[in-house]
Amino acid sequence: MLINFFYHLRAARLPVSIKELLTLLEALRLGVIAPSVDEFYFLARATLVKDETQFDKFDRAFGEFFKGLPATTGLFKDIPDEWFRHVLEREFSPEELAKLDKLGFDKLMEEFRKRLQEQDGAHHGGNKWIGTGGTSPFGAGGRHPEGIRVGGKSAGGKSAVKVWEARAYRDYDDDVELGTRNIKVALRRLRRFARQGADLELDLPDTIASTARNAGWLDIKMVPERHNTVKVLMLLDVGGTMDEHTKRVEELFSAAKSEFKHLEFYYFHNCVYERLWRNNRRRHTEKFDTWDVLRKYNADWRLILVGDATMSPYEILQPGGSVEHNNPEAGAIWLQRFTQHFLKHIWINPEPEGIWQYRQSISVIQQLIGGRMFPLTLEGLTRGMRQLSK
């Protein structure tokens, strides 16, 4: 069965290896867990999943593989009693609640197995059979203060004794669109630490060694704090089709400001031309010459362009193609200057990756930046940070 489970995880695109499967088998051989599906779930996740971003995929694959287990396999023996001490937040009156006999867990499981054997079809409503609605303690969508949810989504009362697919890690799915917290997790992959400033941090190894050399007399050693020395220049597309992506780009920008000590930013519209700006309210009066920006930041800065790359191809390829002004040089020329100056560069696109192939302007920009375009997802940002770290 575990071999089939292993292949099921691989089919769900989880990067599990033979070595990790052998680790799981060794842990089972040594008896590190009780014979419980719940304990097996935590053991399997700890041994097979290498990255917290894969937890949600693992939860889904685990639920798909094991939800077909028969009820007579003894999977429920080790469930602690405190799981059943839930506050009954129901719409039933006290009199109605009193009429619903609480079976107790052993009796509940016994009745559950018995009804599985007796029932020969689907059932809806009522107070006995396994089905949907009604006041039976078994099924889904019904009302009973102590029950087992079988299939379907919760009715919202949260009274099920056992919910197999809680999926507590949906926020970590590497395909989801991001919030600021998850963006920070991805951006942290781009780090180069160095000790800078005054001696403010305890150097524990040196303190121990120095104390030992002094025959036990405490000799505290301090070192400068470690800071991320990566320098990032962000160029952000603003206005037009980018308006629908404002929230997520703001989250990306906020996360970047908190993660990178050295961060500079400028705005552009659709494509980079001869002028950039830093304040959108004064974009027509306070502009920065793009040549000056290229001269100001050395080649050791990392360049991150953020935009949906959705525009007329003329805005990229032709002089005068801008929708806002008569640009003397094509946007493609300026993009080439940036990518040649900043060898470590990427483009973050908030549009879903699946539609990129259908937009000519996105294909053009992908070619101009050497294919270094990544979607604004956790997985996409992770790939982007790895590209910048090379």
Fold topology:
Elements: H1 2-11, H2 18-29, H3 37-48, H4 55-66, H5 94-99, H6 105-118, E1 131-132, E2 138-140, E3 148-149, H7 180-187, E4 193-202, H8 204-213, E5 222-228, E6 231-237, H9 246-259, E7 262-268, E8 275-277, E9 287-289, H10 290-296, E10 302-306, H11 314-317, H12 331-341, E11 345-349, H13 360-368, E12 373-375, H14 378-389
Helix pairs in contact: 2-3, 7-9, 7-14
List keywords for this structure.
390 residues, alpha/beta, five-stranded parallel beta sheet, three-stranded parallel beta sheet, 14 helices
| Class by SSE composition | alpha/beta
Silhouette = flat
Rg calculated over all Cα atoms: 29 Å
Distance separating the two termini: 41 Å
**Mean pLDDT across all amino acids:** 75
How much β-strand is present in the residues?
Answer: 5-15%
Unreliable runs, pLDDT <50, ≥5 residues?
A: 70-93, 119-125, 127-133, 137-164, 171-177
Order of helices and strands, N to C? HHHHHHEEEHEHEEHEEEHEHHEHEH
Number of separate strands = 12
Task: Report the biggest beta sheet as strand number plus sense, adding barrel if it closes.
Answer: 5 strands, parallel
| Strands side by side in the biggest sheet | 7-6-10-11-12
Q: Give the helix proportion (percent range).
A: 25-40%
Task: Give me the number of helical elements.
Answer: 14
